[in-house]
Design brief:
The protein is of the alpha/beta class. Helix content is 30%, strand content 25%. The chain contains 13 helices and 24 strands. The strands form six sheets. It has a seven-stranded parallel sheet, sandwiched between helices. Bound molecules: zinc ion.
Length: 517
Amino acid sequence: GGFAAFLLDGVTGSGKTEVYFEAIAEALRVDPQAQVLVMLPEIALTQAILSRFEARFGAAPAPWHSGLSDKERRRTWREAAHGRARIVIGARSALFLPYANLKLVIVDEEHDGSYKQEDGVTYHARDMAVMRAKLEGAGVVLASATPALETVVNAEAGRYTRLMLAARPGMARLPDVELVDLRRAPPEKNHWLSPHLTHALQETLAAGEQSLLFLNRRGYAPLVICKACGERLKTPGTENWLTEHRYSGRLVCHVTGYSIPKPGVCPACGAKDSLMGVGPGVERVAEEVRVLMPQARIEIFSSDTAMGGDATRGIIERMETGDIDVLIGTQIVAKGHNFPNLTLVGVVDADSGMKGGDLRAGERTYQLLSQVAGRAGRAERPGRALVQTYAPDNPAMLALADGDRDGFLQIERDVRAELGLPPFGRLAALILSAPSAEMVDEAARDISLAAPNGAGIELFGPAPAPITVLRGRHRRRFLVKSPRNVDLSAYMAAWMGRLKLPRPVRVSVDIDPYSFM
Ligand SMILES: [Zn+2]
């Protein structure tokens, strides 16, 4: 009883889930009215996980996620409020249900970026879960195979009790990870798989085993360009490139959702059949594998091909029954599915997540890729992961190859401590937008002049926001850095209080930003 916070730090195959199942069973046993909330990233909230809870605890948990109907939402809300739902399993907003007697909160995959709410009211569900548990006098367990640096630092400061789980014999273990240096052995022109990886794919197919290729890019090509005039096709009024989707025959903006049928002529110069896709998406990698291994059964697993639970279940079942030889997927494949006959994982472009330069890019890349690599192999059939990179000396890549998670966290910690970045300092982003570039630049000057003086406050910007134009609005960004002991929220509020901006200008503040967009 009473508030207590734990970090459950367990590598793949350590039986982490079984450990928190025990904690849930214990909480329910000690207090016959106790309620338990299990939080998962939205993408991991599958029927399979709900069934696993039902099998273990004898009753279906009450679900809470964006796919529920209004009726289902009302039911979960009511059951939580009346205390009849003993176990609620949901995405981050499940935290705000009116529990009658919440005694334990589990945050699984606590490092996952989807716990940070960025639209409207910004909050981090992991931190909110700890606060809520404190208010309720409940326990909270943060579980991960690759905990966030923030969480590790909190554990080392004694704010959380850290429970380390080692891999158990007979369980899945991490595969051998090998970096493929694309500078030395690149793919052929207009191909994306290196000779080393194509050879491994053929070997795996010949052995009757399954492969997974990971590329976190939907569609066929992330950019469409005119061979005649060089025009790059964008969403009107923005700088966002349109992605070519071959299966649907459309060009789609992944930022705004704007989409058009692929035009037969270039909209800029009118040349016929001159538009071509540049760069790889999962559809294009599938095409390459089809040419390489015509006899292989190939499927794509992305939010385009797995819309809804039935399609997702279908792909998972065909993997389990061995009806797929090569699965090509986006980050949707990183979560939770274990296929016993999957022995090869190929990461097509390990560097893609490192671009954009935000402070967690390396950490996030390490977490995602070690999760993807962890899909390969079981105890009786070891797996391997081939990671294609142009930056094999990057600390995240080296740590991945050496399986040296703690060494990587140490480097990350040293860099951030040196620079005074979170969790050792505080950071806020201020984004302003306006209908025209002139108006937004003028507002940015006014905002800059209105900044209060504050001890230790460092102000960077204004600079164009990474998404410079969004839905017809031009965007600029300030970053504000402060030491840990400064109340940065109060500073930002004081700053905002001084602003008198024309109505079309909008300002939003994000404390401890994650996406930096
Ligand atoms: Zn053209």
